[in-house]
Every structure is written in structure tokens, then in C-alpha cells.
Amino acid sequence: QKGGFPHFMLKEIYEQPESLRNTITPRIVNSLPDFTEDGIDDEVFKNCENITVIACGTAMHAGIVGKAMIESELRIPVNVEIASEFRYKEPLINEKTLVIVTSQSGETIDTLEAMRLAKRCGSKVISIVNVKGSTIARESDYVLYTHAGPEIAVASTKAYSVQMAAMYLIGCRLGLVKGIYSEEQAKEFISKLLGTIPVIEETLLQADEVKTVANYIKMAPDAFFIGRGMDYTLSLEGALKLKEISYVHAEAYAAGELKHGTIALITENVPVIALATQPAVYEKMVSNIREVKARGAYVILISMGDEVTDTQICDKHIRIPKQDSLFTVFAAAVILQLIAYYTSDAKGLDVDKPRNLAKSVTVE
Ligand code: F6R
Asked: Region 277-288: what's the mean pLDDT?
């Protein structure tokens, strides 16, 4: 059942290239994103003036990545709401808001109730759901199924990647329908999205390298994930994954925010996982890394290619293949998942069934 892997989580991490292929390729017609088979009407994209993403946990983190991508590419405002908060608010949405509800199980009660509220506000809802025929899929106006296959491990990995891919597909179709992207631009976007699949395959070859990092992190009571831009959105998920299965307390910080308080916690040997895959802010990241290094942090740098000239800034360097900075989240996510996995495993914990957690949260 585990296909030769010691845990479902590791199996599911390795299934990501296939899950992404299954989610993306059926929605590509003539090299362009196409939701005809899903029955999603382009009217929803034409009418949309802003977007609200509603979800919980990892699914919400996929929404935060989607927000960063859509806002920077399309200049359309995206609001990401924690479902359990949204459902008790008077929401600021209307018929001009496209609501995207993201849920692996399609049964998370807070997400479901938040979606019902969004519909009462007159918004059209597209759900991004993995489980066929689940309640959220049935009750949403449109559903974009992710084809990750069953996810057994409590910690979500492949479902997260395909949720991000679904957000990218929606962003690309939206850009095309609104005339923000030309056909050429949309084709280029899709080709880069598909390009993340071999990049992930290559990234997975670094599992042994990541294992050595995990052997360090397992001894730490706390860890910090820092990044800027797309990297910051990803660090939120990196911290959640580590906490969830390895019980190492972890926090994600926008790298520029450290000096506004958190840097007080950076002392000798504290692991700092620094994501630096965004060339536009790379130098800024390097100066943030120097700040933590100067306080004795053990820096694990995740970056693209070979930008680092000064080896002094990090203790461990994990490289992901060179690619467009809008798409690095897919490969970098795999590294973060592997860090959490190997840390949990090195501590001898029950990786697939972390304490106090259930796969599907159907109670409030
Ligand atoms: C973390 C994790 C959870 C879920 C969250 C939402 O690894 O799996 O944070 O993402 O409970 O679940 P779904 O996506 O089923 O709505």
C-alpha cells in the first residue's frame, strides 16, 4: 500500500510530479488553460473584480501563494480568509467577488459553512477540491477537481501542490479572459507551469541532502522560516508542516519583519530556514541572513542556482533548479516537506498520524 516507502507521507511527496501532471494536463487545450470539461463558465472570470479565497490550514496557505501570484501578475486584488474567521464575520464580498474555496477533503466544516455564507452574499464560488463528490464540491457553483489521488498521511503534501497548481491555472485563465494576458503570454505561463514537473523530479534527488539538515533540526526546540515575496508565502507552509509532524515549534517570518521583534529569539544554533529563490529581493534576503548569522543562527539556505558567492552566510545550502521566480514555490515546497518529514522520522515520531490531529476536520 505504501509502495515500498516507509510512510504514506514520503510516498505522497514523491507522487507530486504525477499529481501535478494529472491536475494540469486535462485543463490544457492548444497550450492554453481551458475549463470547458470542468463546466466553468468564462462569465465568472469576466464579472470578477476581486477575489476572496477561503480555506483552512495548508489549503489556506495554497491560497496565500495564489494571492501573491495573481496580484503580481494580474493586478487583481485577492483577499485570503481563514474559514473559521470568515464564517462569523459580516463579509465584504458581493456578486463582483469571485470566491475560491480550497479543500482537500471537501468536508472541512468551517470551510463549508464559510462557503455557504459566501453564496448567500451573492458571490459565485469555484471550489478546488480533491475528494470527488464531497460536500463542498457538490454545493459550490463550479468545481475544479485536483487529481492528486487519495492523500492518506495527515500532513498534506501533494494536495497542497495541486491546490497551488489549480490557483495558477485559474490565474492564467482569468488573465486570458480579461485580456490581461495575450494568448502568447498565457501559453508561456502554461509551459512554465508544466516545466515545474521535471523541476520537482530533479529536486527530489536531493532528499539525502535534506536528511542531513533534518538531523540538525531535530535537536532544536524552535526553528524559523524566513523569506520575501513568494518565498514568504511558502515559509508559512514550511513552518506549519514542521510543527505538525515533528513537534518542533516553528514560525514563519517575512524576512524584513525580523528586526521588529522576532530577532530577539535568534540565538546561538537556532535553525533558520531561509528561502531565497526570488532574484528581485535576493540581496535583501542576503542582508537578513547576515543579521541572523551574526546572532549565531544555523542557516539553511534554499535558493536557485549558484547565486551565493559568500559561503559564509549559510551552514547548509540546498539548491533548487533555475527557473522563472514565479514558479519556484513548487520545487521549494518539496524541500520544505522533506525537511519536516525527515525531522519527524529522525525523532522516531508517527509521521503519518501526528498527535491530536485528524485528516478531515468535520467538527468546529
Ligand atoms: C496540514 C493539513 C491541514 C488541512 C486543513 C484543511 O497538513 O492538512 O491544515 O489543510 O485541515 O483541510 P481540507 O483541505 O481538507 O479542507
From this structure: 95
The string of pLDDT tens digits covering residues 79-113 is 999 999 999 999 999 999 999 999 999 999 999 99
Atom of ligand 1 nearest to the CA of 56: 6
Q: Which three cell numbers stand for residue 84?
A: 473559521
| φ and ψ at residue 45, rounded to 5 degrees | -80, -40
State in Å: Cα 223 to ligand 1 middle: 22
* Mode of pairing for the β-strands spanning 124-129 and 97-103: parallel
Q: What is the CA radius of gyration of the chain?
A: 20
pLDDT grade for 310, boundaries at 50, 70 and 90: confident
Long-range contact pairs involving 146-150 (C-beta distance under 8 Å, separation at least 24): 146/19, 146/23, 146/104, 147/19, 147/22, 147/23, 147/26, 148/15, 148/19, 148/22, 148/23, 148/104, 149/15, 149/18, 149/19, 149/22
Q: Locate cell 496557505: which residue? A: 61
Q: Which of 239, 231, 104 is nearest to 158 (CA)?
A: 104
H or E segment to which residue 300 belongs = strand 298-304
- Predicted-complex ipTM score: 0.99
**Does residue 57 have its Cβ closer than 6 Å to ligand 1?**
yes
The type of residue at 77 is P
Full-model pTM: 0.97
H or E element at residue 276: strand 271-276
Helix, strand or coil for residue 110? Answer: helix
Q: At what angle do helices 158-177 and 57-74 cross, to 10 degrees?
A: 30
Task: Verify whether ligand 1 is closer than 6 Å to residue 361 (CB atom).
Answer: yes
Q: Hey, is 9 helix, strand or coil?
A: helix
Using most ligand atoms within 8 A of CB, pick from 7, 104, 130 the residue to mutate for ligand 1: 104
Q: What is the layout of strands, in order, in the sheet containing 97-103?
A: 78-82, 50-55, 97-103, 124-129, 142-145
